[in-house]
Amino acid sequence: MDIVLGIKVSDGVVIATSKAATRGISILKDTDDKTRDLSDHNLMAFTGESGDTVQFAEYIQANIQLYNMREGHELSPYAVSHFVRNTLAKSLRSRKPYQVNALLAGYDTDKKTPSLSWIDYLGTKADLPYAAHGYAAFYTLSLLDHHYRKDMTVEDGLRLLKLCNKELNTRMPIDFKGLQVKVVNKDGVKVVDGEW
Amino acid sequence: MSNPASINGGSAVAMVGKDCVAIACDLRLGNQSLGVANNFEKVFQFGHVFLGLTGLATDVITLNETFRFKTNLYKMREERDIEPETFANLVSTSLYEKRFGPYFVGPIVAGINSKTNQPFICSFDSIGCIDYSKDFAVVGTASDQLYGMCEGLYEPNLSPDDLFETISQALLNANDRDALSGWGAAVYIITKDKISKRYLKSRQD
Fold first, then answer.
1. Cβ of B61 under 8 Å from any chain A Cβ?
2. Any A CB within 8 A of B31 CB
3. Which of B40, B56, B101 sits opposite A126 (nearest CB)?
4. pLDDT per residue over A68-109, tens digit each?
5. What CATH number should be reported for the domain holding residue A46?
6. Does residue A98 belong to the interface with chain B, where contact is any CB pair within 8 Å?
7. N or C: which terminus of chain A carries fewer CB neighbours within 10 A?
8. Chain B residues in contact with A123 (beta carbon < 8 A)
9. Which domain does A125 fall in, by range?
């Protein structure tokens, strides 16, 4: 029931994740952060089997940071997304595969382009203008299909996200305790304050 | 429904014409009934050989990368591009290496041999058994429908333009009877000295 949403706009990427940490029938926390900063311009949002998720995200984070330190430059969003995909695809045929779905938001500082990749636990990768994992996809993708324009700004993206949030609040069977919203653009990763 | 080869959906078809071959695929990537992407191409080029890969999308991506790696090494060793017949054997042995834990894919190979100028197409099962064909080859979730369309529309010795028309209609109409395929299509027409690629618009449901 976790929500992970991403919208790519002309000058950045907007990422939203639900703040509820659920276990069975209980909500354990209403300030959960389902994202990790991989580097200055790369952010990973994730859902899946609890335990696997954070373990996997921090394993990726550590490896990306190690690469950045060894090579003295930041890995492009394209390279990061392929590294994550490859890690999951290898894990799929291991004794205990990671059950983690992820969205990768990034800003390529060389090409000056934003990037959004949808990756599931099988290692299926798709580069998309907007993406969602889990049940949230069923409620939001139709809205995004209708309203999305590729020349949108971050402000437009946040307005569109408000629309998605409203739909999720009316249709989701349990309270997801609101969204945490982050924007990735040329200036890096920033949390968007406000009522979500 | 838990068949790994039909989680993501997708199909591909290849046909032989007169001194030409054609290969085409749909563009859908799905998760069960949910459409995820409409730009997921399933035909890949290695020199003058073309490989269509349908089935589990993660394996489609992995195998494309594996064959790009292997054909690049082949090119450096042999100082020439790989021929379709050789590439078919490379696909076959690569898949059989994973006999007891296979890639869940349905591949097809199409190309024209640059020495003999003979058109070549074939398809495989997921463990690498080659199915040679002199008319058409089909793979994917719409393979039953594709067989029907190809049996009905195909005739030997078509010109490149007529072959384009035939393969396009075969793919489009087969995809319309399959919920897991469609969302656009890409068609390659290959002759000895020209490769043309065209995108087809198709039903978006």
1. yes
2. yes
3. B40
4. 999 999 999 999 999 999 999 999 999 999 999 999 999 999
5. 3.60.20.10
6. no
7. N
8. 58, 61-62
9. 4-192
Q: Closest partner residue to A89 among B29, B36, B62, by Cβ?
A: B62
- Complete DSSP assignment for chain A: ---EEEEEETTEEEEEEE--EEETTEEEESS---EEEEETTEEEEEEESTTHHHHHHHHHHHHHHHHHHHHSSPPPHHHHHHHHHHHHHHHHTSSS---EEEEEEEEETTTTEEEEEEE-TT--EEE-SEEEETHHHHHHHHHHHHH--TT--HHHHHHHHHHHHHHHHHH-SS----EEEEEEETTEEEEEPS--
Confidence of residue B1 (pLDDT cuts 50, 70, 90): low
Q: What's the predicted TM-score (pTM) here?
A: 0.97
B58–A126 C-beta distance less than 8 A? no
Predicted interface score ipTM higher than 0.90: yes
**Count of structural domains within chain A:** 1
How many domains would you assign to chain B?
Answer: 1
Query: Residue B122's domain is classified under what CATH number?
Result: 3.60.20.10
Tell me whether residues B61 and A138 touch, CB distance under 8 A.
Answer: no
